[in-house]
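Standup notes, protein team

Yesterday: finished cleaning the Rhinopomastus cyanomelas set.
Today: Palmitoyltransferase structure.
Blockers: none.

Input for Palmitoyltransferase:
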Amino acid sequence: MGRRIHFVVDPQGWCCMGLVIFVWLYNTIFIPKVILFPHYEEGHISVVAILSYYFCSLFCIASLLRASVADPGKLTENPNIPFTEREYWELCNKCNMMRPKRSHHCSRCGHCVRKMDHHCPWINNCVGEDNHWLFLQLCFYTQILSSYTLILDFCHYYYFLPLKKAN
């Protein structure tokens, strides 16, 4: 997996990523303030639930940042193609560079990416050979955080609030 930092200059991608960070920040502040801390003080939930929520949130934002700045597998300017592998390479008609088969040119980033899956505006980066695992990690942690938030919302409205009204 590549360790180079890759930064895409795309205003639409910046807006999408800014929206994602805003939603993450809003949920990281709002959910604990409205649901976790009041019910912790009432004794309905433990400190483990609060710490778990913050760890899920931290993993989610860390994987977002890692996926957005990781090199997706950008091809170098002058690749050193072994003579025996030349039949597996082709010329890109957009950037006029030699690229291996299964590589695609990204019109947003302006370069060819090895085993490109798609350009994701939410991470403002292509998903390719070198950052595909990081993108899957982001999807996993986002699913965990979303499910945890949904469970907390459900418990708040259908379990904790009726307890408060009964008292």
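Follow-up from PR in the comments: The chain has three helices and six strands.
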